[in-house]
Amino acid sequence: MLSVTGVSKIFPGVRALSDVDFTARAGQVHALVGENGAGKSTLIKVLTGVHPPDAGEVRHDGRPVRFTTPLQAQQAGISTIYQEVNLVPLMSVARNLFLGREPRGRLGLIDFRRMRREADEALRALGIRVDVRRPLRELGVGAQQMVALARAVAVDARVVVMDEPTSSLEPREVHTLFEVIRLLRDRGVAVVYVSHRMDELYEICDAVTVLRDGRVVHTGPLAGLDRLRLVSLMLGRDIGEVRGEGLTKFTGSHHAAAEPVLNAEGLTVRHQLHEVSLSIRPGEVVGLGGLLGSGRSETARAVAGALPTDAGRVSVGGVPVRGGSPPAAIRAGISLLPEDRKAEGIVPGLSVRENIALAALPALSRFGLVDDARIDRIVDTFVRRLRIKTAGPHQKVGELSGGNQQKVLLARWLAVHPKVLLLDEPTRGIDVGAKAEVQALIDELAEDGLAVLLISSDTEELIEGSDRVVVLKDGRVVDELTGDAVTEDALLRAVAAVPAGGRDD
Questions:
Q1: Contacts of 181 (CB under 8 A, 6+ apart)
Q2: Per-position DSSP letters for 67-95, written without gaps between them
Q3: What is the pTM of this model?
Q4: Which of 191, 195, 214, 482 suits 205 as a labelling partner, its CA being 20 to 30 A distant?
Q5: pLDDT by residue (tens digit) across 449-495?
Q6: Rounded CA gap, 382 and 370, in Å?
Q7: Please, what's the b/e burial string for 45-84 (b: 16 or more CB within 10 A of its CB; e: otherwise)?
Q8: In Å, what is the CA distance from 156 to each residue of 75, 78, 308?
Q9: Which of 355, 383, 417 is the last residue of a domain?
Q10: Cα-only R_g, the chain
Q11: d(CA 389, CA 249)
């Protein structure tokens, strides 16, 4: 249905793709994997008309094509679901579903009644029940992702490209997504599936292509390809080395101080948080567990002053944080790495240098004049320390891979020398190599005496990376796991509110 032959793509200072061959076949789910910066996103953008190839050929349904816009690709039957939902937040759910193909009446006017009815039917078919008249922005990220999926299915596409589609979904929604993918496959649709989650790849994909440094290093059936072999292909390292390093880069050897540096007491936000309390000591990593919607992100945002509270107090080193705002929290030594790095983190139009220096500018300026030499030293230090892959400090951060964008955000907050670092899904949507680097950095920061709050939907990461895990459910603290009690079974029981030795009926 869709293929590229000998495709190359060069950006200033970076060869993103080099002589790439790739084929998406009808009735097949084809995994596209590789580290961040391997060229996956660039290949997707070449396939869908965002970037023209500098060399090579794109073929659709057996015929050479040259899409110059994403609209041309969509009109040819190629639909894309991006990791960051690319819909219009101020428009209603129904308008988003039918954007560009609104049903019209005899006079050419939009038939809103029919549009709302058909939008409701399309969402209900995926198990989604929302008021389609509501603005999209009022839905959670997971629900927005399902709306994007419904739109892709509704346009009757022959090729569907999915870029990390489950990164914001709950297990129930992931199950629904996989059912839809199987339905598409049975209809003869070609599905290109990008994900860093191994379990998903082996559950839903038929074939796999591995990219590394812009080149194809493997392509073929996924069945029979050992997971360790797949990871070693992605990283370019020996299987024995991958096997010896384990599943995460966490060492679990933190040495926390006796007294907490952060105390949050009775944090309450109407309909979101109910008297949430937690503390973190210097050198300690405290995990925040729970399902999506349990209040994890809301807790971090409340501590960081980004979510106004109705009650409760936050103190750092025994000194209350007054003002309840992000600037007040930053001055007190609290930094938050948000879950949605695109919407709330990076400024894509600014350079790597400018993004790293943003939060530290007040400390790097005097009488309104910025010390450029100090900025250059700080940026150079963090680019080297975090191994940020960039053509240079003046490259736009929007041109970097997801993993490197995440590192730029980490560098920004480390540059202000925080006492408490709140990490909301720090490894979401980044490859196994970048993930291991971020995990190792979290360990290193804790060893240096930083107090870390870790929010992660990856159970393995949460368990192996945390000294304690505070479990939330429906905006309340339901359990706290410490020491040997920090296990997957104990965490799942706390989340499900199942007593030890009991059954989840």
A1: 29, 162, 191, 193, 204
A2: --SHHHHHHTTEEEE-SS--S-TTSBHHH
A3: 0.61
A4: 214
A5: 899 999 987 778 888 888 999 999 888 999 999 888 888 788 877 87
A6: 19
A7: bbbbbbbebeebebebeeeeeebeebeebbebbbbbbbbb
A8: 10, 9, 43
A9: 417
A10: 24
A11: 20
Closest CA to 2 of 57, 41, 75: 57
Distances (CA, A) of 477 to 128, 142, 276, 284: 28, 23, 6, 19
Q: d(Cα 355, Cα 339) in Å, to the nearest integer?
A: 17
Average pLDDT, the chain: 84
Query: Among 229, 244, 259, where does a domain finish?
Result: 244
Total residue length of the chain: 505
Residue 473, CB-side half-sphere exposure with 13 Å CA sphere: 12
Cα–Cα distance between 444 and 422 in angstroms, integer? 15
* Co-location of 69 and 180 in the same domain: yes
**376 and 400 belong to one structural domain:** yes
pLDDT tens per residue across span 72-84: 888 888 888 876 6
pLDDT of residue 240: 60
Are residues 408 and 438 both part of a single domain?
no
Residues 133 and 172 in one domain: yes
Q: Identify whether residues 196 and 260 lie together within a single domain.
A: no
Per the structure, the complete domain to which residue 67 belongs is given by 2-244
Split into its structural domains, the chain has a count of: 3
CATH number, domain with residue 102: 3.40.50.300
Tokens of 286: 């405290």
Contact between 67 and 149 (Cβ < 8 Å): no
Residue 169 has pLDDT above 50, yes or no: yes
**Are 60 and 19 in a shared domain?**
yes
CA–CA separation, 38 and 196 (whole Å): 12
Torsion of CA 377, 381, 387, 390, to 10 degrees: -10
- The beta-strand segments (E) located in 77-225 are 78-81, 159-163, 190-194, 207-212, 215-221
Q: At what angle do helices 432-447 and 402-414 cross, to 10 degrees?
A: 10
Whether residue 258 sits in one domain with residue 111: no
Cβ neighbors of 316 (< 8 A, separation 6 or more) are 261, 262, 332, 333, 334, 419, 420
- DSSP structure class, residue 426: T
Q: Are residues 303 and 160 in the same domain?
A: no
